[in-house]
Amino acid sequence: MKEISIDVPVEPPAELKPLFIPIPPEYVEDAYKKDEYLVLVGPQHPGSGHMRIIVRVDGDVIVDAIPDPGYVHRSMEKLAENRLYIQNIPLFERPAIMDNANFNLGYIRAIEEALDIEVPERAKYLRMIMAELCRIGTHLYDAAILAVFIGHTTGFMYPFAIRELICECLVKMTGVRFTSSFIIPGGIRRDADNSVLDFVKKATFEIERRLKNFEKIFIKNPATIARLKDVGVLSKEEAIKYGVVGPFLRASGVEYDVRKVEGYEAYDELDWEIVVADEGDGYSRFLVRVNEINQSLNIIRQAIGRIPEGDVISQDLFENVNANTKNPKDIRGAFYDLFANLKLPLGETTTLTEAARGLLLYTIISDGESNVPYRVRIVSPGWLYLRGFMESLRGERLADLQAIYGSFGYFPPEADR
Amino acid sequence: MKVEKVEIDPISRIIGHINAISVGVKQAIKPERITVEYPRERRKLPDNFRGLILFEKDRCISCFRCAFICPANAIQMELYDNYYPSIDYSKCILCHFCVDSCPTTALKQTKIHDVAFRDLDEMVVHTDEMINPPKLVREDKITVEYKIDRELILERRKEVENLIVDVEPVERIGYHSACVNPQNCIGCALCARVCPANAISVKTEDEKRVLSIDVDKCTGCGLCVRECPTKTLSLVEVV
Amino acid sequence: MEMLEVLVEMFEMFKSNMVNIPLIQPVIDALMNIPIVNYIVALVLWKPFFAIAILPGLGGIMIVLLLMVYWERKLTARIQWRVGPLEVFRPLRGLIQPLADGFRYFFQEVIVHVDSHRPYFVQLPILTFIPVLLPILFIPAGEIVAIRSSYAIQIIVALIALIPITIIAIGWASNSRFAYIGSVREAMMYFAYEVPFVIAVLAMILMYGSGDPYVIVEKQSVPGVIMNPIAFLVFFIATLMATSRLPFEIPEADQEIAFGPFVEYSGILFGIVMTLAYEKLYIMCLLMSILFFGGWNGISIPLLGDLSPAIWLFVKAVVVMLIVALARSIYPRFRLDQALKLGWTSMLLISLVSLALAIVIRLSGWLG
Questions:
Q1: Is B151 an 8 Å CB contact of chain A?
Q2: Tell me: the pLDDT tens digits for C4-41?
Q3: Three-state secondary structure readout of C228-275
Q4: C359 and B CB contact within 8 Å
Q5: Which domains does chain B have, with CATH numbers?
Q6: Global pTM?
């Protein structure tokens, strides 16, 4: 049917005037002249995180999507300039609280690289176990959010119940369920004894068993497959062009994982594989993360099998410091003496870490004299793949917005920092 | 490793439907619940759980370490006979950096985590309120523990868990303050003013001030070392 | 004097058509001797009034609403590894939770926003009750019926087809961005399920030979679901589509368009619009049990007399509703174009197959 365009001067609806929308008014008028509809999937919406997406819809098809992030911006980089190096640890694990070990690890590795501290082997293995537990927890959280965005409440409850086991493991190891602030320069705060590691190993088997039920009711459900398949496709060139990172890049066919590129901690001593998919649609992004859970369980079991005995706090720290205790297995009593007067040498240090959702970058710039950092820069994975997320929305239907949002696992507090 | 391809022919779809419905029906008949019916039941927590912080007054040496290290500035030192810490729970993030910094284990953790304050003024917990545990109203009669054998079992025992943990004090290496660079001393006597144990005495001898440290009184807190502007003092191990 | 004559005539009409329950007959006989009370008793036990007000009418709807909300929450919780509502009345483990919820709606403030068409906004939820409750006049439960007609099934289907129009009007009256999208989706879903639904019902009517519920129930020595299971499948899926239950909860998608046409309602109006879907489900389940499960056939309890077939029909409808609640926790939501495709390709084909099956059964003369 031929469409006839009518050139009548059109006023956008009056309700859009008082709302502060960060798009120019010419855009709004242009959308209304072309008979398209602006839907504001706003920060108070059961189907968005704390961000607003301005969607330009032609009938039911999305023509353009403009993100409006920044509702959860807490200016962490500026806050870090006024706190000691050691006091920034609880600050920098707050962007993504389920993924706290990875965020912690990136910051601590930057300090260790600047100060040239050697981490003992047992501490490396324990840090790796914590990082993998947090990675599994984040992938389960993202799967649950995907399920609730397409209406499957059972698929929301099952991963959170499984995540309860992960929180129980972390409680036994560190003392809190998340935001543990447990990784310090030179190792970890306390040692974990064999009964705890035994519980963690048994928990991995229980997680695998319960994941089978989840698989049958959600992952292999034909309605889920119909909803996610061939939706929000990013080809390999597009994914690289828009700067997508993490498992979402691996779902478009690129084999890149920072844990293999820079074998930090003890990742290069264990036997595991990178998970890659070819299609680049929502379902393969989801399947990549589910398979990564299995790989992480494998890593944890291998690590528990091979963990050596030894100290957990590096002896390099105890030199030239009058510490109250010199117990290399427990930091209690010596925390202030070892860390409160840390001064990094003049210069800039950068580390890359593989957080659960992608590549995490930390840069610490120090002026050589003060015990607070001059500048800390953190670029979280959510901010890096936001552009790819918005580009993948073009041409899809309005109902797919939530499905693609869930398949990307966008987490606004992490992206806004 | 490549992700496996998903089939979408009608037969696998029907099998998928049947699988999903069978899981739903099986869970409806025999659920694998992990619910703990709080507050009638309570979950068992490990001993290193980071809960509320209690204080032992006779162990404290007023070294101010806890107040300096707190990331949220939640500890203020209040003056009684000496300076003792008080915690503002509206700021505290329960990171237990202070517990780990205390050289004499004067601050210790408990397993109490569900507290309620009636207004914002009550959230500043003064030192004398931190010595004894807060008034606990225990509604729970059963303790639940997560145990994993072949599968997750919730073991319910009819006991009331003790929330106060016995913490052994750390083995402390004794230090005392010593004057390692006496030529730098300018006689400002800041160290004498700041010492919580009154171990530094000031004497005036022919228009020069002489300061001496009483090693028996010195607790090795390190405040004088921090305060000295000319790096005269340092901590030395007790022989 | 004329009014008194009219009243006496009405009294005679009531007394001649009363429901017969041997269990409480002595009480009724005793009450019939008291002058004004006998009028009220005769009115209450008059068959059409009994059908509308008590069973399977408004009284049945109240019981079903309370039970269905509670059962749905408890069953969903059980599948999801949790417990569900527990605290409202502890000895009964939370049984009166839906009552507490409904009670709460009376105390909430009803906000009518400035942009809405105010008279339509406030009155449409109540007007929606007309096409939802009218089919109760035609559904018989044994001997208890309001209007006995030999075209009852066709009339019920026609009345059910009117309900989506009122829901679209509710969304339009709200004058809000998301309500508009919800109304459009409701209109599209209406197109998806209506044709296969009507063809499935036509197949059953063709098989039984008439649209009179009494004839249909009499001919069901073997339940209809065994004779024509394909029509049952189409009817079941069309029920899920018609009442916005998962997996077809598309007009009221909670996460995508913030509850669709009903987004601006609060307070007691919200309570009313929430019950609309459940009442439509009840009507369609009553229709399903008459067509497929043998209606009010069952072991007759002599003590209850006329009430026993009514209770059988009610119990069958409630059991079907409880099973429909299972689909909520197993499936996610389909997209609109996928549901439309399903309705116009797979379901249409299957319903035509069921029509052919019905013709074959009728021609073989097996049902007489």
A1: yes
A2: 888 888 887 777 777 777 777 778 777 777 777 777 88
A3: CHHHHHHHHHHHHHHCCCCCCCCCCCCCCCCCHHHCCCCCHHHHHHHH
A4: no
A5: 41-157 (3.30.70.3270), 175-237 (3.30.70.3270)
A6: 0.89
